[in-house]
Amino acid sequence: MEVDEGLVMEVAGAADALDAELHLLDRTFPVERLRISRESVPVTKRTQRGGSYFADVDVFRARARIRGGGVSDLVPRAMLGPSTEFADVIVIAEGLIGGRRRRVILHTNLTNAVEGPSYAELSLNVTGTEG
Predict the structure, then answer these.
(1) How far is CA 36 from each of CA 69, 82, 98, rounded to the nearest angstrom?
(2) What CATH number should be reported for the domain whose range is 5-130?
(3) What is the pLDDT of residue 58?
């Protein structure tokens, strides 16, 4: 699946005003805050990592803060890591994007999760877009 860079940048610019939800394995969580940025990755060319996924020289990273937490039991089955088994985490964002009302789907891989008493913050790499 391809990443539409222009679309991701439009979502990033409108993120504060969007309604979003995160789908992790068989659960859905409302997203309280979504941030997206473009970051460099420490590789010099597109590289296959661990025999299971590819890393590009730069990536769109999303941080999604969800209400209520409750993801700690899902993280080991979903996160990129030493295992080749990981889940596609879906973020669906709706609202005024690029000057019109749209629904955008971000396909992501989970790279980190921090859970507090009333929230969880997930770090995600965007791997594909729809919308």
Answers:
(1) 20, 25, 15
(2) 2.30.110
(3) 76
Determine the pLDDT at residue 52: 46
Q: Measure the CA dihedral 118/62/24/56, to 10°.
A: -150
Q: Please report where in the chains the tokens 């989970």 appear, as a residue.
A: 110
Query: Which residues, given as ranges, of the chain have pLDDT below 70?
Result: 41-57, 80-84
Query: How many whole angstroms from its chain centre is CA 131?
Result: 15
* Cβ atoms < 10 Å from Cβ of 45: 7
User: How many whole angstroms separate alpha carbon 84 and alpha carbon 49?
Assistant: 10
E strand or H helix at 77, and its extent?
Answer: helix 75-78
Q: For residues 108 and 62, is the Cβ–Cβ distance under 8 A?
A: yes
